[in-house]
Amino acid sequence: MTMNAAGGRRRPPTIHDVAREAGVSRGTVSRVLNGGHYVSPAAQEAVNAAIRRTGYVVNRHARSLITGRSDSIGFLLTEPQERFFEDPNFNVLLRGCTQALAAHDIPLLLMLAGTEDERRRITRYITAGHVDGVLLVSSHSGDPVAERLREAGVPLVACGKPIGLASKVSYVAADDRDGARDMVRHLLSLGRRRVGTVTGPLDTPGGVERLAGYGEVLAEAGLEFDERLVVSGDYSRASGEAGAEHLLARAPDVDAVFVASDLMAQGVLTALHRAGRRVPEDVAVGGFDDSPAAVAARPELTTIRQPWDRISSEMVRVLLAQIGGEDPAAVILPTELVKREST
Amino acid sequence: MTMNAAGGRRRPPTIHDVAREAGVSRGTVSRVLNGGHYVSPAAQEAVNAAIRRTGYVVNRHARSLITGRSDSIGFLLTEPQERFFEDPNFNVLLRGCTQALAAHDIPLLLMLAGTEDERRRITRYITAGHVDGVLLVSSHSGDPVAERLREAGVPLVACGKPIGLASKVSYVAADDRDGARDMVRHLLSLGRRRVGTVTGPLDTPGGVERLAGYGEVLAEAGLEFDERLVVSGDYSRASGEAGAEHLLARAPDVDAVFVASDLMAQGVLTALHRAGRRVPEDVAVGGFDDSPAAVAARPELTTIRQPWDRISSEMVRVLLAQIGGEDPAAVILPTELVKREST
DNA sequence: CGATCAGTTGGGAACGTGCACACACAGCAA
DNA sequence: TTGCTGTGTGTGCACGTTCCCAACTGATCG
């Protein structure tokens, strides 16, 4: 009467069952599971056979309870959710991190915390020790979540240098300033002299650094810095469109635009098209990221390639090292100019 | 000497600490935590105050160990990963499910299983009981993961009717056939008579049903079914582009195309543009999904809106009900024609 | 020959929680 | 009084694992 009905979910085998099946003790099975040190070849073989026969899988909850580790990593996004889904960069980054962690057999927990309410819930969830570390893919200055996690001592790696935080936080970033310099030099090399820019949000490192690179190259070329050529955006397609309209209104003679993200560049293209400007004949457009948006755009975007695959694998490497007890570290990776149709 | 260094992670408070702080027993604290039945107002207040003071958060590993529940849900995608990141539909669905589950304070575990190797790992992970249920967002026929999970008795809700599976599996789907009918009728109402189609993969319910709706309406309008007007795709942008080229080669007089996804429709637009056909003047193009890709396209796509927000909330509702012991259920939701520039 | 040591094994304790149970107490009916 | 019901409270046990310590082997060393 108390037996499980056929087809129902029967009690999964425990380490105890395996030990009995193999004729050894729990301790020996546990040792086999965790590296196999101090176990005789005979016992090792018997245990492995028993595991195969019983179909045993370790109960991670029980293990986590005693080790204090969860063997999982969180992928935390504190942006409004639209940003995540609109911006292909996040997708690429997520895929890269998933793959890098798969090599360690560690599942990735995707956490979206767009509202303050969700941020509180997520913070509680994380500080409860349900993930061993966090990959933070948004880094506005003054982000309360990052600060709270840092205070709680949660291992943390940011994508892009966090601005407002104390120095003791790891991050991995592309060389934004250098990439911006490459692009603006490229635009100048095409003979353009009225080079405008649509910046990223200026409370993010990417926004600040790319603008700085733009300014540097113009200065080095002996061109005056004309603030009518500078408008700011928030990385969204819509802000690129609005930015380009501003630009055209304030500086109608603009002949090139360096846009701080591909997605915004799509918006810029839309606005230019509507204004009757041809790309690249009348206005050359350079993007940033080399995201899928770059090849989806018409014309296809010349852009600065961020090495997303390396960024994600480095983030994972640094985070795992930090969980293992190492000190925080910062990694800067080089970018690359990719020429397409828009310049 | 054994004290924690300042700034380090100190031992988190347990239910024991809270009980001592509040002057009650563990059991009372546990009762407050789980609903507060059979607890006096005085004790309730004392416990809540103690929780606030100690900063206690429940240890989910310990709870899961005894309850056998993980209080988390898996979002499982067995497609090759590129599909997930290219296709905006998945993003919208993911967001909807995340939000719906947030209302229940349940975190969502995103699992990508593109390769057979990963599928094995993920299956093991799931059947080990580390999620309470699975939202399955891919449903090719013969998907081995779905079958394995069903056999293991894991609560499961698919997005779209699974073709090859036994009937006892829940699913939520839009009314694909009816949506396709609406679109084709719309194209005919514009006076088009050579209406082609680029189908979805024909081992998925969406692919099959949308094609069926297309055929039905043509037949009802007294138009002959011309197989030169039918090409199949796989929902990717690239397959839409290739499909349109096929279509133009085999039926140059085509004056409208019903494309089974917005993403493929983007590819169709690209191919038509390259072939010098104007949209919608020469060829009207209708998509399916009303995903972000529809408004990103140039011209913006007329399409069939899938109610993604309702689909995701229904998937969550049905899954939670099933975890609670209810029987599997199927839900079909209506679609809506959205007119834009491409027709 | 006793002592030491590296390798190997078994079993007790603990991790933090939920649950079943025992129990206390008040109110009320027999 | 005795019994009974419903509410509120404390305690032992179990969940499945890892960690730690003790014990047992041979082999080597002083």
From TrEMBL, chains A, B:
Molecular function terms from GO: DNA-binding transcription factor activity; transcription cis-regulatory region binding
Entry keyword set: DNA-binding, Transcription, Transcription regulation
Pfam family of the protein (one): LacI
Record domain HTH lacI-type: where: 13-67
Protein name, per record: LacI family transcriptional regulator
